[in-house]
Specification:
The longest helix has 20 residues. The chain is built from 13 helices and eight strands. The model has no long low-confidence stretch (mean pLDDT about 95). The protein is α/β, with parallel strands linked by helices. Helix 12 links the parallel strand 7 and strand 8.
């Protein structure tokens, strides 16, 4: 759960920030500020500490090489410029192995906003904190999906505060589902590992899980990039994963959040079609569809009633 990292007593400030970055994937300073409860200026200062601390040894060595080039009398100006340029590239690359920033193109032409993430060494470091191993590179192609999912979380924080709900990103949400199915299919999977791999691939991987007043909600952000075929497959994966009687503890409403009314209505219409075509006489999950921001208003009405 992301909130555990914000004031974790065993971690340094820059490690806490790294763990939040690990959970959020790619994130703006504004959203980091909301989640951590710091000013954007303070967040950025801590962000800089990651590179300045963890990449320091290799960067200092490269800077020493850079200084040596600048004072090397055997090199002419053109050679110095060329070699210095290569060293500066290496410094930038080394820093980006820990953390990196990407440009987000905004609505105003020519303007950009930075989005921050971990590099492969940063991911490896965070997995090590959790006693896990591995690494991966976070790709820019998923930038706007990360921003959309993070936007759901920050709207909830701004509306409810961090203490009034629990939030799990995709990795933890999926783990909860898989642990349930490992119990359900224990005998079958232990006898047939290939079957276990196949069926785990068919399990839905939500974008998030919200728990509020002991009510669970599976969360999906749709960036209007997937075709109807892919969306229908997700609907069916949800039905097959959370609706069966023996997985009753997983059967919670699914909240879909997207960017436009047109897309919201398209998602809802596709769901009605799926219900009619595949499950006309069968039990299905509850699905609700929203434009960004509408989900918070819907949750407020639902839970203000529950609390009275």
């Amino acid at each position: 759960m992301i909130f555990q990292w914000i004031s974790h007593p065993a971690l340094r400030p820059y490690e806490r920030l790294m763990m939040v970055l690990f959970e959020m994937g790619m994130v703006t300073l504004e959203d980091l500020s909301v989640v951590m409860g710091y000013t954007e200026k303070r967040v950025f200062k801590i962000y800089q500490q990651v590179q300045n601390t963890l990449a320091k040894d290799k960067v200092d060595k490269l800077k020493h090489e850079l200084t040596a080039i600048e004072v090397d009398s055997s090199l002419n100006d053109e050679q110095k410029v060329s070699q210095s340029k290569e060293i500066k590239k290496k410094i930038k690359k080394e820093k980006s192995r820990w953390t990196k920033s990407s440009r987000q193109i905004t609505e105003n032409r020519g303007s950009t906003s930075r989005v921050y993430s971990l590099g492969p060494k940063g991911v490896e470091y965070c997995l090590g904190i959790m006693n896990e191993r591995g690494s991966w590179d976070i790709k820019d192609g998923q930038m706007y999906h990360y921003i959309g999912v993070n936007g759901i979380l920050t709207r909830l924080i701004n509306h409810y505060g961090r203490d009034n709900f629990n939030w799990y990103f995709s990795r933890e949400a999926t783990d909860i589902i898989i642990r349930t199915w490992e119990i359900i299919r224990k005998n079958e999977w232990s006898k047939d590992p290939k079957l276990a791999v196949k069926e785990k691939r068919e399990i839905i991987r939500p974008d998030g899980l919200l728990v509020m007043d002991n009510q669970m909600y599976w969360m999906e952000f749709d960036n209007d990039t997937e075709r109807s075929k892919q969306i229908i497959q997700k609907y069916r994966e949800y039905r097959n994963t959370i609706v069966p009687k023996y997985a009753e503890n997983l059967n919670a409403p699914v909240l879909w959040v997207t960017k436009t009314e047109r897309r919201r209505d398209s998602l809802a219409n596709n769901w009605e079609m799926v219900k009619e075509e595949y499950y006309s006489d069968a039990k299905v999950q509850q699905m609700y569809f929203f434009v960004e921001g509408e989900e918070t208003e819907w949750l407020e009405k639902r839970h203000s009633t529950a609390r009275t």
